[in-house]
Amino acid sequence: MISRRKFIQAGLILAALPKQMALASGRLFGNHFQVPKLELGQRVGKQVSFDLTVQAGHSAILPNQLTPTLGVNQSFLGVTLRANKGDSVHIKVKNSLDKTTTLHWHGMKLPATADGGPHQSIHPNNTWLSEFDIIQDASTLWYHSHQLHETAEQVYHGLAGLFIIDDDKAKGLNLPIEYGVDDLPVIIQDKDFKQNGAFAYITSMRDRMMGKKGQTVLVNGVINPILKAKKSLLRLRILNASNAKTYHLSFDDHRPFHIIGSDGGLLEQSQTTHELRLSPAERVEIVVDVADGKTPILRHKPNHNQAQGGGMMRMMGSMMGDDKQMNLLQIDAHQAVKSNRNIPKNLVKHDNPKPSEVVKERKMILAMKMGPMMMFGGNPFSINGKAMDINRIDEVIKAGSTEIWTIENHSMMPHPFHIHDVQFKIIARRGGVKGHELGFKDVVYVRPSETVKVVMKFPKFSDAKIPYMYHCHILEHEDRGMMGQFTVV
Ligand code: C2O
Ligand code: CU
Ligand code: CU
């Protein structure tokens, strides 16, 4: 991560102000934008080997304090893995923690044994080998811990990183693609801290119910970083790696930007907008033009028309101050040189799942029980009336088949619903489908009492025993029951 000395310099300035004020006001952009280290693996032709270690460390996030963190090949967050469509990857994951963990390749189409879900736990000092062929198009995927009942805490402490896939079609588009220069990861996580600098995970009943949200937002592990733009066109690969918070992203000067990609890769056509919503686990790729040499701030500005929840939840949320405006990142474009890249209107052609090939429809009802269970443990969250049971297979799907899933939210708060092993298209939702939701998705935000329909073609991998997961990606909900298992046969 950042050199300690630079951090302390920034820290001294911050330390002159009361800590909470400096952090909350978000006006001080002085920290350096950090780019997670790029890991291309060892390549022999199309065989690529990655050597990963899940590790614990300490990171300088706050002024003059060290925070105990988790990371992959670095002390906080994971290195960025990057490979090509058509590669065969061999990923060795060593667990150097004193607790069991997993690494799940979120968004990847792959055999169940390679998925890294709760069935592929890695015990302390053990190594797990995940091997699969990359069969999908250029996209911004990610990886994170998926340890049963402990995902939330492990991801909160830093077990999350990007997995970028490239392909020839995408490379042919002349989009910004130089990692760390004009192709930039933006991993967002919100945190709370204890007096001693440690992360403050779950501290209240509200955290348990709504999921853990924090008052301080980090971008690539840094508070309020400033990104010195080298080029006038910047591609931001934004990942919401937060446990529970949904962001409404826009620039403080209302400048337009172009959405080019969603969870599952490039859109068919770039979409110009001023703002977008990004719920936990969603990714979006945007290109922003900073040729004006200005200093725009990317921020979260709550959009109350898009209601975080139903009336009561929203009221509670704003009473608790968990949906105030937050600044994320400032771009300083003074030194940006003219880019020779562009933003084509037409990007790629999608091979859409065909409604005529749908062989099966399923319904997923998301619900939460209020009352004592919510407070004192147990699994108050459910899908189709059942809380997650690792010994129960909920759905059996035919390999290579096309299905429609109808996801109904019967609770008072939104749930970002995720399915492993596939990329789907949203075919019906309240208010219509627009922006990045036009693309391939592996997470869909489902508002209170909303019904969303998605269509997808499952890959051909089959395994009668080892299941994949579908679940709410508010990690506290996932950990406490809002998850189910399916096999593909
Ligand atoms: Cu992002 Cu089941 O995971
Ligand atoms: Cu996943
Ligand atoms: Cu949820």
Please give a structural write-up.
This protein has 489 residues and is mostly beta strands. The chain has three domains: 31-169, Immunoglobulin-like, CATH 2.60.40.420; 183-332, Cupredoxins -  blue copper proteins (Immunoglobulin-like, Sandwich); 355-488, Sandwich (Immunoglobulin-like). Helix content is 11%, strand content 40%. It is built from eight helices and 34 strands. The strands form six sheets. Strands 15-14-13-17-22-19-20 form a seven-stranded mixed beta sheet, with no helix packed on it. The radius of gyration is 21 Å and the shape is globular. It starts with a helix and ends with a strand. The model is unreliable at 1-28 (pLDDT under 50). Residues 104, 106, 144, 146, 281, 418, 420, 469, 471, 473 line the site of CU-O-CU linkage (C2O). This is Multicopper oxidase. It comes from hydrothermal vent metagenome. Keywords: Metal-binding, Oxidoreductase. InterPro entries: Cu-oxidase-like_N, Cu-oxidase_2nd, Cu-oxidase_C, Cu-oxidase_fam, Cu_oxidase_Cu_BS, Cupredoxin.
